[in-house]
Amino acid sequence: MRQRSNWPCLSTRSSDAWEIAKTVAGMWIIRPDQAQTQLSFMPFRRSLLLALLLLQQVPVVQAADWGGAVGATSDFAYRGLTLSDNKPSGQIDLHYFSKSGWFAGATAASVQRSRYDSTSLQIDAYAGYAWTPTDPWSLRLFGVHHDDPWNNPSGRYNYDELSGTVAYADRLSLSMSVLPDLAVESQNGWADRRVALTYDAAFHQPLIGALSANAGVGYYDLRWVADTGYVYWNAGLAYDFGKLELDLSYIGTDHTARSLFGSVAVNRLVGSLLWHF
């Protein structure tokens, strides 16, 4: 998922082109104040850049363009769960948008699955299609592959994700994702290669000058993974310095998430800084 992170690319303005790159690391948003091919990310707390809960406006692409971003967050949280053991994380994204609306890219972020693991790297490759059927409505469909190539054992946390987003202008977006092969470790034990679903809503409101408010809420449906599901949410402020963006948001989860994942469930203030190019 301005919600990393479905798009596990779970990361500041997500998916969580960061949550995508935000839903990816977990989803992204396309900034309406810039060229229509420029992407911006909000950790959705899917990921610094895939995960606020994905406010992802998809304007008509007028020209092919390369873009990217480099950022850091005080906690790489994706769908309400920390992927950096409640520690800072660095992130980078590179993407390409075609004139026809097709796009593809990749994000990378430092992760630490637990205090007993060493810091490693999560890489998310994504591709999709964005279009505007009628202004101000826009749509986007995309797929993401989440990969932890240096994790031991190899492939333990790898999984795929298919997502769709409908957005109204740059104010409101609704998203749904299907994760067909998710592996999760919780208080209920280890569940390998099960289906999971996520539902997200995000809201963005310009305030004064370059200051804006962002809020999002999502539901992680883990009925086939852990016989339950949980709610995650975020609310905060963002300030745009041009190519530099600062985001400060509180990320929270419900009691079910805390029961399932303990200290991995995030309930704290998270700050993120992003430079896009």
Text of the CATH class: Mainly Beta
Q: What is the strand content?
A: over 45%
Shape: globular
Unreliable runs:
1-61
With strands numbered from the N-terminus, the spatial order across the biggest sheet is 3-6-7-8-9-10-11-12-13-14-15-16
The number of distinct β-strands equals: 16
Radius of gyration: 16 Å
Category from helices, strands and their pairing:
mainly beta
Order of helices and strands: EEEEEEEEEEEEEHEEHE
CATH H level: which superfamily?
monomeric porin ompg
The percent of residues in helical segments reads: under 10%
Q: What is the CATH architecture assignment? A: Beta Barrel
Q: Please report the distance between the alpha carbons of the first and last residues.
A: 19 Å
Biggest sheet layout: 12 strands, antiparallel, barrel
The chain-level mean pLDDT equals 79
| Total tally of structural domains | 1
What CATH calls the topology is Porin
Task: Lay out the secondary structure.
Layout: E1 29-30, E2 39-40, E3 65-73, E4 77-78, E5 81-82, E6 89-97, E7 102-111, E8 120-134, E9 137-147, E10 159-168, E11 172-186, E12 189-206, E13 211-222, H1 223-226, E14 228-240, E15 244-253, H2 255-261, E16 268-276
Antiparallel strand pairs: 1-2, 3-6, 3-16, 4-5, 6-7, 7-8, 8-9, 9-10, 10-11, 11-12, 12-13, 13-14, 14-15, 15-16
